[in-house]
Design goal:
about 325 residues, mainly beta, 14-stranded antiparallel beta sheet
């Protein structure tokens, strides 16, 4: 998934099904459609701590207090924080007195007392760089017409700098078109350039986890059986221009099983796909893998030094993760 930072996005989500009550069908509609993806974090992520220029020189209040990059700010003083706007409102009346900052670090709440400093521009500051949401383009993996559940990406939406899975606040998927391609080269992963139609809301995001994003939506198509992935010839569905889904040939080279998860190494063999993209590029994450007419998995990552190769995940793991994430919530 190609991701960029955004702030100020607010989405009202209607939760229309309970994950724990849903039994996934054995036949699913394969995806391949490009999706515009927008997600707000549950709290505000510390993208970095920085120095503040004061009359006495540089100072780093947040860093000195112990706040770290990747922390999720959930409370300032007595005010709960869920967005950058909440954060701005909570600190607008800083006067130099210490203020309590509560963060989520690796799933545990920690509290710090931060003493603001007066910057050269006359504002009291904590020395924080913040991020409260992301947007980008990814690919739909499957849709279950019986339950109304979709799955996409095949991996979590994570912070590009820390690698942390972002805690889900609100989020949605939108109609998108691919308007350009940056081909991948050794040492430089390529990307699909997409245009998202924010007026064309397709569904919500209810789960963001290691096996993808999931939510409620509605898509049309012909269902096919799911199956077990194995080595050998296969194909993927993806969108490389406009909103047209096409099929391209790959080969499943190796299968790895560890921690009750199955990942696969894949290699693009389709001449047309290699010519257009160099192989696997950002934005193709979630492209469904089809083998012997069955939906067996999804593309997840590209090898940075070999864009023709990458990794995938099994469809069974994507489906199993829905119930596991719900139980852990």
């Amino acid at each position: 998934m190609a991701i960029k930072k955004f702030t100020g996005f607010i989405l009202a989500v209607v939760f229309i099904f309970g994950m724990s009550a849903v039994a996934m069908a054995q036949e699913l509609i394969p995806g391949g459609k490009a999706l515009g993806i927008k997600m707000m974090t549950d709290g505000v992520m510390v993208a970095g701590v920085q120095s503040v220029e004061t009359e006495k020189g540089k100072a780093s209040p947040a860093e000195d207090a112990g706040i770290e990059k990747g922390d999720i700010i959930t409370r300032i003083g007595a005010k709960d924080i869920s967005s950058a706007e909440d954060f701005a409102a909570a600190i607008k009346n800083l006067d130099g007195s210490k203020i309590s900052v509560t963060v989520d670090r690796a799933g545990k709440a920690r509290q710090f007392n931060v003493k603001p400093v007066l910057s050269l521009d006359g504002a009291w500051k904590l020395g924080l760089m913040l991020r409260d949401g992301i947007s980008g383009v990814g690919t739909l993996t499957f849709y279950d017409p019986e339950s109304g559940i979709y799955g996409a990406l095949g991996h979590s939406i994570s912070d590009s700098e820390t690698g942390m899975t972002l805690p889900l606040g609100d989020g949605g998927i939108y109609d998108a078109q691919v308007i350009g391609i940056v081909p991948g080269e050794a040492g430089s992963p390529g990307a699909l350039n997409g245009s998202t139609d924010e007026a064309a809301f397709l569904g919500d995001i209810q789960i963001n986890c290691g096996c993808g994003i999931y939510g409620a939506a509605q898509f049309e198509g012909k269902p096919i059986e799911t199956g077990d992935i194995k080595t050998g010839r296969a194909s993927i569905y993806c969108t490389l221009s406009g909103d047209t889904v096409n099929e391209y040939q790959i080969e499943v080279k190796r299968i790895y099983e560890n921690d009750d998860m199955k990942t696969v190494q894949i290699c693009v063999t389709d001449p047309a796909l290699l010519e257009m993209t160099g192989g696997i590029v950002q934005g193709m994450s979630g492209s469904p893998i089809i083998q012997e007419g069955k939906l067996v998995g999804a593309v997840t990552h590209v090898f940075v030094n070999d864009p023709a190769s990458g990794y995938g995940i099994s469809i069974q793991d994507m489906l199993e993760q829905i119930s596991l994430c719900h139980k852990a919530a």
